[in-house]
Specification:
This protein is of the alpha/beta class. The protein contains eight helices and nine strands. It has a single domain (about 10-210), classed as 3-Layer(aba) Sandwich (Rossmann fold), CATH 3.40.50. The strands form two sheets. Strands 5-4-3-6-7-9-8 form a seven-stranded mixed sheet, sandwiched between helices. The chain binds S-adenosylmethionine. S-adenosylmethionine binds next to helix 3 and helix 8.
Length: about 210
Amino acid sequence: MAAQSDNSTKRNSENLLNHTGEGVVIDIGTGDGRFVYRSARLNPRKFYIGIDANAAPLEKISMKATRKPAKGGLANVLFIQAAIEDLPEELNASADEIHIHFPWGSLLRAVVTGDENILASLRRLGAPECQLEIVIGIDEERDRTEIERLALPKLSTEYLKNFLIPKYAAAGFETLESGVLNASEWSRLETSWARKLQSGANRQVIFLILQLA
Ligand SMILES: C[S@@+](CC[C@H](N)C(=O)[O-])C[C@H]1O[C@@H](n2cnc3c(N)ncnc32)[C@H](O)[C@@H]1O
C-alpha cells in the first residue's frame, strides 16, 4: 500500500472504499482530523466532515482548514464537535461514506457490540447506498483496562460472522467485506492513531465494509 491519492487502506490491491469521485464523507471519532484533512486535500471534489466528541484535538485542524488555500486552507472540510450518541439532525441522509477508524470509549463499545441505537443513527446519516468503513484495533494486553471497563467481547472472526455482521444486517447494513488487516496494511492508514499504534505488534485490527441496503 504505497502513498495513495485517496488515503484509504488497500487490501488485495483494492481500496477498502473508493475515495475518488464526488460525495460527502463523514469520519466519526476523527480525533485530530488527519484522515479528513489529508483526504480532502487529495480529493477536492468530495466534501469531508470530521466529527468528534472531544473538541480539543479539533481546534488546530479547524483553524488550519479556515486559512487561505496557500496556507493550508481547504473549502471542502468541516469539523463538528458531537458524540455519536447525539449526531446533528442536519446531517441526516447526507453521507455517501462514513468512516470510523480506531474508535475508543463509548464509540468503540457501540461499534463492537453493534449497539442498535447507534446503528440506527449511522443509518440516519447515510444517503442511499452509503458505505460504512469501520477499522477496530485492540491489543488484549495493553488495552485490558479499557476492555474490562467497557465489558467488550473478544473479537474473533467467529464473533464477526455469528454476532456482529447479523447485528449490522438487522440495522440495514449489508456487509461487503470483513476480516483482519495485517500490520503492513493498517499501519499505512492515514490516521494519527494508525501511526501511533505502529509499535504494537500484538494489536489485532479488524475491518468491516458495509453498505446501506
Ligand atoms: C483512538 S482515537 C482515534 C482518532 C482517529 N480516528 C484516528 O484514527 O487517529 C478515538 C477517538 O474517538 C473519539 N470518541 C470516543 N467516543 C466518542 C463518541 N461517543 N462519539 C464521538 N467520538 C468519540 C475520541 O474523542 C477520540 O478522538
